[in-house]
Amino acid sequence: MTNYEIADHFSLLSRLMDIHGENSFKSKSYSIAAFNIEKLPREIEEMDDAVLFNQKGIGESTGKKIREIQQTGKLDALEKIMSATPPGVLEMLHIKGLGPKKISVIWKEMGIETLGELEYACNENRLASIKGFGAKTQEGVLQSISYYRKNQGFHLWADVEETAIHLVTQLQKTFSGNLFALTGDMRRQNETVEFVEIVSDIEKETVIRQFEAIADTVVEEDPNNLLIVRIPQQPVIKFHLCATAAFYHTLFATTGSSEFMKAFLEKYILPATPENEEVIFTNNNLSYIVPAMRETAAILDKAATHTMYDIIMPPDIRGIIHSHSTWSDGLDTIETMAKAARDKGMEYLVISDHSVSAYYANGLTPERIAAQHQEIDAINAKLAPFKIFKSIEADILGDGNLDYNDKILNTFDLVIASVHSNLKMTLEKAMSRVIAAVRNPFTTILGHPTGRLLLSREGYPLDHKIIIDECAANNVVIEINAHPRRLDIDWRWIEYAMEKGVLLSIDPDAHSVAGYQDVYYGVMAAQKGGLTAKQNLSSFSLKEFEEFLAGYAAKKQVKVLI
Fold first, then answer.
1. Which residue of 5, 34, 250, 330 pairs with 11 in a disulfide if CB–CB is 3.0 to 4.6 A?
2. Which phi and psi (to 5°) does residue 351 adopt?
């Protein structure tokens, strides 16, 4: 179990205690324990009792409960309170806008125990009349229920990838005479997936025997030669079984989206027994299309005219842009972050801690900015030729202004402008707010443009074409925030941005050294949109990056002189 999974036990226990109206002091202690566990410098499984019990904010009592979770997979106190909570009330914890206190009112005062009952109550306008709720809360709850249901059963690709690859690897080892390959949404690197899909020439009965041996596992047979495997607390596995001769035919047919395959079958011929996937393309005089890009009909036109280009790969990233340190809400010091980036082969690091409006994240005051810049200068002197650039993730305020004056903004090498507050906006409000920030001469990068959190929160509405056009007109880079819960801007707008000459930037938004690994997920998402290294800012060499900033400095100098 990871630290985050262990922390989830304590966090859930705290929230359920609040719902039940139990001792608030004890409830808060569990919430604090969850926070402290998430902030531990390394994984708990690597610590013995002496080390664990002496961690700040842990102690022997919490330490013993952690060991209980590791050894049994459960926390007795949590199991007891869960058994006393209706399943529908537990499900309400997934609904945005409903904290434990509101859920307690819904359950204990209104007698509502399921999401269906809650949805009905909202449609009957009952929630709006309850003290502490109101019409806006009611509307938000309805939207959240709809979003939750739409995404129920889905997983982040990043959360499933390792498990899926491990599964295929183990199957290949166990059944070395058979063929296995990931397919479907997993192979296309979709941001979220419902199933782990596998193509194989293995016998159906062999799969059934293999998986039915796992406790509580259900194997369902499908008339289309599919096997659905449901393992407790794991993504659903879907096997596409075929004859050996039809393996690559089946792999190709199950990899592409429905739009892609429909367009392919209308114009081209699918060989019955291809010896590999490349043959399918060459036989039809098409350039090879990587699995990640087999989404749209339009990509086939590029393949037909042989205008495909080399997409970005993980080794193409040469700098870490957008990272936070202990100066705001990061876990590691600037020097630690810099050395780790250098040791990963990066040429530079952009430190962009939170700005003053982000008080909840220890945002930087003007005085602290000056002190941080002195520290960066000192570290740069030690680590040259590696270089740290001075940046800030400036909040885009409600009126579209950034939360520092021009004089302070002029002290940074570059500015990432992001929306962090008041995310519930109309299209008109969101557009005016973001456009104003894009037009600010000090904005270098538009950070996570829609503010979305995959499977948790829809982003605020934007007319992407207009925003991209504005970025083109103002020489603003658009971030592909690589955090697997964001992957924002959506890959579907990458091609349009490239057509307009807008640079994109795959940035990890790292709050620790460990966050650097998220660059990989950003690259995987960017591949789907066909991003090239040439049009990705974080693929620039140090020299190219400095030249880019020199041009940006000339732009903002005009503003300073005015």
1. 34
2. -90, 120
Q: How far is CA 363 from its chain centroid?
A: 23
- Residue 29: phi and psi, rounded to 5, are -65, -35
- pTM score: 0.81
Q: At what angle do helices 518-528 and 157-174 cross, to 10 degrees?
A: 90
Q: What residues contact 120, with CB distance under 8 A and at least 6 apart?
A: none
Cβ-based neighbour number of residue 407 at 10 Å: 9
Query: Measured between alpha carbons, how far is residue 531 from residues 231, 426, 473 in Å?
Result: 36, 30, 20
CA distance 226 to 206: 13
d(C-alpha 106, C-alpha 126), whole Å:
10
CB 164 within 8 A of CB 475: no
On whether the CB atoms of residues 469 and 496 are closer than 8 A, the answer is no
CA–CA dist 409, 217 (Å, integer)? 57
**SS3 state at 242:** coil
Q: Which domains does the chain have, with CATH numbers?
A: 3-151 (1.10.150.110), 155-255 (3.30.460.10), 263-308 (no CATH), 314-561 (3.20.20.140)
Amino acid at site 309:
Y
Q: Is there a contact between 227 and 238 (Cβ–Cβ < 8 Å)?
A: yes
In the prediction, which pLDDT does 551 show? Answer: 87
In this structure, are residues 124 and 165 in contact, taking their beta carbons and an 8 Å threshold? no
Secondary structure class of 96 (helix, strand, coil): coil
pLDDT in tens, 226-267: 999 998 878 899 999 999 999 999 999 999 999 999 999 999
Show the tokens assigned to 513.
């050294």
**Is 181 in a helix, a strand, or coil?**
strand
Give 486-520 as a DSSP string: T-BS-GGGHHHHHHTT--EEEE--BSSGGGGGHHH
Distance CA 241, CA 229 (A): 13
Q: Tell me, what DSSP letter sits at residue 344?
A: T
**Which tens digits make up the pLDDT trace of 296-354?**
999 999 999 999 989 999 999 999 999 999 999 888 999 999 999 999 999 999 999 99
**Which two three-digit tokens encode residue 511?**
């709050």
Query: Where on the phi/psi map is residue 487: left (φ > 0), alpha (ψ -120 to 50), or beta?
Result: left
Distances (CA, A) of 257 to 187, 279, 488, 507: 11, 19, 21, 28
Q: Residue 548 corresponds to which amino acid?
A: F
Backbone angles phi and psi of 416, in degrees to 5: -100, 120
